[in-house]
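Lay summary. Proteins are chains of building blocks that fold into shapes, and those shapes determine what they do. In this project we predict the shape from the chain. Here is one chain we studied, written as its sequence of building blocks.
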Amino acid sequence: MKSIDLCPRLQKSMDIIGRRWTGLIIYQLLQGPQRFSEIEAALPISGRLLSERLKELEQEGIVLREVFPETPVRIQYSLTDKGRGLESVIRDLQEWSDAWIEPGDCRPQTAAQDKRE
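And here is the predicted shape, written in a compact code that computers can read:
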């Protein structure tokens, strides 16, 4: 069998966006800046894992975490230019899934299931 040499940059991008929940977090942030609780309420993901993924996306320069010195402190997450650059990829995946994934093939994930994995 012939070995395929993958572009390291393509592999890196697939590693980032392929992490569980990452694509849906980016999809959620495409709607605009949001607080942690808003993202958590919109997705069936545990707070611990959401926090972990947001930190990873921040380290990759995809998500911006802004702290507003108010009382109480307000923290808001938004996509950077690099993150917004993924919009067409996310939208294309949405269109592909609408065309090729049967509704019955989708099982909603719950936060309880997420904690076990």
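What the prediction tells us: Helices lie at 8-17, 22-29, 36-42, 47-59, 81-84, 87-100, 111-116.
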